[in-house]
Inverse folding.
């Protein structure tokens, strides 16, 4: 059980994505957007060159997830939102 509310999570998650994760992805032409935080799950969307890249699953796991879990909480769940699914998060 996550000890933080979704609203509590928003500022640190946004901050880490903007300051640490986005610059890492930008080096390879990729980008990331925080879509939402619901029930302790962080919904992000990999964008730019990350879309359709075979390494995007590894990027999500070894960069996005690792950074957020180590900085905020080890049980944080990160979900990549495919293009076009932004309004259907509950289906992911």
């Amino acid at each position: 059980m996550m000890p933080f509310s979704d609203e509590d999570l928003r500022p640190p998650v946004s901050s880490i994505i903007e300051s640490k994760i986005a610059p890492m992805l930008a080096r390879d032409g990729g980008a990331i957007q925080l879509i939402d935080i619901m029930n302790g799950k962080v919904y992000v969307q990999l964008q730019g060159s990350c879309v359709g890249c075979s390494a995007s699953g590894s990027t999500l796991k070894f960069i996005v997830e690792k950074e957020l879990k180590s900085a905020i909480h080890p049980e944080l769940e990160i979900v990549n939102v495919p293009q076009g699914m932004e309004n259907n998060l509950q289906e992911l």
